[in-house]
Amino acid sequence: MSAKTNTAGLAVRRAAAQRLQLVLTGAPFIPFGAADFEDGRERALANRLVTTALRRHGQINKVLDKVLEKGTPKRAGLFEPAIRLGIAQLLFLPELGDHAALHLAVETIKRDRRASRFAKLANAALRNVQRQAESWPLRAQDLVPDWMFARWTKRYGETQALRMAEMVLDQPPLDLVFKKGVLPEQDEAGFAHIAPLLPQSYRLAEREASVADLPAYEDGQWWVQDLSSTLPARLAGPLEGKKVLDLCAAPGGKTAQFCDLGGLVTAVEIEKDRLKRLQENLTRLNFHAKLLEADVTQLDGAGEFDVVLLDAPCSATGTYRRHPEVLWHRKERDFAQRAGLQAEMLDAAAKRVAKDGQLIYCTCSLEPEEGENQIEQFLDRHQEFVLAPVQADDLHGWSAPIDVKGYVRALPCLELPNGCTGGTDGFFAARLQRVA
Length: 436
Ligand SMILES: C[S@@+](CC[C@H](N)C(=O)[O-])C[C@H]1O[C@@H](n2cnc3c(N)ncnc32)[C@H](O)[C@@H]1O
Prior knowledge:
Belongs to the class I-like SAM-binding methyltransferase superfamily. RsmB/NOP family. By secondary structure, the protein is α/β, with parallel strands linked by helices. The protein has helices at about 5-25, 40-55, 55-65, 80-90, 100-110, 120-130, 145-155, 160-165, 225-235, 255-260, 270-285, 325-330, 330-350, 370-380; strands at about 175-180, 195-200, 200-205, 220-225, 245, 265-270, 290-295, 305-310, 355-365, 385, 410, 425-435. The chain contains 14 helices and twelve strands. S-adenosylmethionine (SAM) binds near residues 252, 254 and 313.
């Protein structure tokens, strides 16, 4: 290894350790951008290191339990993130070389004021990992917390739970929604590798450019939206001339769908910056909606919308392939707490639905407290609503995400339309109708 590679390699490991440290203390992972690393290869390496450590977090926990008998030292600065990155390289990125993995992890620790006194410990632990690299028992179920795996098994069965756990290793694909009547140009100048999922939804088989550099971005011909996230708005049916209230709307994937379907859309969002982003997204797409910066639970008005959609804030466990850290940041008790706010929001949303109108509720959660249970409790509180079960026709004949009660329960490991591969985000949606 040349001195130059070594210095650059160390800078990448140090930055990766600092970024991973933030995530270990509860922050979401924000990928490195051009401002962090001008050199694209260094940037890609830093992102790959942190992402691998996060996707493999549960398995690395098990390895750490074995090689650090007394546990991870406390108040030890970059010790924990650096040793995690070292293990991630040794076991899961062998092409980067064992020597680099070990040496650069230990150097990162040596040069950190708080961690340096543990450099020998790190060295011994990483050598131990290296010696036994072939024999660590790396189980798929360890990719998610034990309590969450037990929940998934109870709810979805062991086979699906294992498949879902394995999917934390996958880089999620990029799905685009094209405006009504627009078809992607399928050639080298346009989208050479794109596959249809459902009407208007396409999957990019290869992502070679950043989103803003993809064809026709500036023309506003399409927006990014994972397949399962498009399902709730599809339940509304034709919207020409209908009044639609989109609650918890930013960044606006569903707002765009409603505008595209011809709805007269009012979108509500509590966070100013996110509302601004929503407006920018609509402007690029040349869509128009009335935007309100407001708290859904504090809105005035009653019975004036044909369709109300509530995309409630939730644990977001369904997005774990994009954000593997959600699996480790969540606690089981969180679900019940969030469910209280979701119920309050649902009650507020219900007031705005006109007679015979629809209320669509959705979350990107895999947890029943934020999905099925929420709706069953809502129907107990609100006799003026009934469940309008989702039919395969509502989803253009795709029945895989519809459960026996007529809820949309999209699991990441679902069989996709048109034989597409690559999974989807976890999502729940229910459609209710106001009957009195
Ligand atoms: C799951 S995201 C919505 C995604 C969006 N519907 C889409 O399709 O792009 C939830 C949003 O709800 C917003 N939110 C959270 N609490 C809210 C409240 N009390 N009132 C209004 N918006 C809220 C959050 O700021 C966040 O933007």
